[in-house]
C-alpha cells in the first residue's frame, strides 16, 4: 500500500522496481544524512522538511481533485464515443466532408527495461485510464513526461522500445459513413480519412481537459507551479494504493497530468474583470 514517508522497498529485479529505485536517486535529502550533532544543520533540515511536507500536501490535494474530475469527464466521453460508433453517427468530419466516428480499444501495454529479459504487463483494468495516459501524452507533445532512458512502455509483448504513433492510431476503431476503416492499409500506408477523424478526437480531448482545468483553475495552477520534480514524484508515487494492479500506469498518468498543466494554453490564471470601485 502507498504510504506517506516515501519508504518503498521495491524489488529491483522487476522493471518497475528498477524504475522506483531510479526515482529514489532524485529524492530529497534524508534525515539519516544529517549530522545530528550539528544543531544548525538539524534545525535547517527540520525547517526544509516541514516546508517540503506542506508543499507535497497542497499539490496532492490539488491533484486528487483535478484527476478525479478528468477521469469522470473521460469516462463520460468514452461512453458517448461508444454509443456514437455503434449507431454510426457522424461526430467528426473529414476534409471531404464525410462524417465519421471512432471508438477507443484499450491496447495491451507492457513496461520494461532494456537490460532485463522480460517486460511486465501493465494493461489497465478500465478503458479510461489507458485513454488518459495515451491522449495526455499526445496532447502534451514534446512536453510529455520523459521516461528515463533504457525504460519503455510498449503495446507489444515482445517490444523493446517506446510505443510509436502507429500504435496510438491503431488503438482506435474508425468508421466513415457507417463503413469501418483501418488506420493503415495492408502495406502499412496511413489512410488519410481515419487520421482526419483522429484529429477531431484530439481536438475534443483538448477541450475536455481545458474545461476541467478552467473549472478548477486554482488547483490547476497549483500543479502548474509545482516545479520541484521531487514533490511531483512524491505526489504521484503516493497518489494511489501501491497494491493496486493499475498502480504503474496510474503513477505515469499522474506525472502526465502535471506535465499537461504546463502546456501553453491549457492551464491559465483567470483574467478577472476589473472595475473602478
Explain how this protein is built.
This protein is α+β, with helices and mostly antiparallel strands and 277 residues long. The chain has one domain. The protein is 48% helix and 9% strand. Strand 1 and strand 2 form a beta hairpin. Helix 2 crosses helix 5, helix 3 packs parallel to helix 8 and helix 7 packs antiparallel against helix 8. The protein is globular and about 75 Å long.
Quick description:
The chain is built from eight helices and seven strands. The chain is of the alpha+beta class.
CA radius of gyration is 21 Å
Strand content: 5-15%
E-strand count? 7
**Main pleated-sheet profile:** 4 strands, antiparallel
Separation of the first and last Cα atoms: 53 Å
Q: How many domains? A: 1
Which word captures the global form? globular
- Strand arrangement in the largest pleated sheet: 1-2-6-7
Amino acid at each position: 500500500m502507498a504510504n506517506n514517508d516515501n519508504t518503498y522497498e521495491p524489488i529491483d529485479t522487476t522493471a518497475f522496481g528498477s524504475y522506483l529505485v531510479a526515482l529514489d536517486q532524485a529524492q530529497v535529502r534524508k534525515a539519516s544524512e544529517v549530522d545530528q550533532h550539528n544543531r544548525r544543520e538539524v534545525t535547517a533540515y527540520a525547517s526544509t522538511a516541514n516546508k517540503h511536507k506542506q508543499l507535497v500536501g497542497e499539490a496532492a490535494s490539488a491533484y486528487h481533485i483535478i484527476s478525479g474530475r478528468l477521469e469522470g469527464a473521460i469516462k463520460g466521453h468514452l461512453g458517448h464515443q461508444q454509443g456514437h460508433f455503434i449507431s454510426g453517427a457522424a461526430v467528426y468530419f473529414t476534409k471531404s466532408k464525410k462524417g465519421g466516428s471512432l471508438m477507443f480499444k484499450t491496447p495491451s501495454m507492457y513496461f520494461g527495461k532494456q537490460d532485463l529479459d522480460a517486460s511486465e504487463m501493465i494493461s489497465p483494468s478500465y478503458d479510461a485510464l489507458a485513454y488518459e495516459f495515451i491522449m495526455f501524452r499526445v496532447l502534451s507533445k514534446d512536453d510529455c513526461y520523459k521516461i528515463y532512458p533504457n525504460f519503455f512502455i510498449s503495446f507489444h509483448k515482445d517490444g523493446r522500445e517506446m510505443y510509436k504513433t502507429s500504435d496510438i492510431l491503431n488503438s482506435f476503431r474508425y468508421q466513415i459513413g457507417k463503413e469501418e476503416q483501418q488506420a493503415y492499409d495492408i502495406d502499412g500506408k496511413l489512410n488519410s480519412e481515419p487520421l482526419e477523424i483522429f484529429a477531431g478526437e484530439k481536438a475534443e480531448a483538448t477541450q475536455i481537459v481545458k474545461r476541467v482545468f478552467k473549472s478548477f483553475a486554482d488547483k490547476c495552477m497549483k500543479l502548474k507551479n509545482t516545479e520541484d520534480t521531487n514533490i511531483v514524484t512524491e505526489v504521484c508515487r503516493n497518489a494511489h494504493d501501491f497494491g493496486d494492479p493499475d498502480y504503474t500506469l496510474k503513477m505515469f498518468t499522474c506525472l502526465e497530468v502535471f506535465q499537461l498543466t504546463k502546456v501553453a494554453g491549457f492551464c491559465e490564471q483567470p483574467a478577472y474583470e476589473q472595475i473602478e470601485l
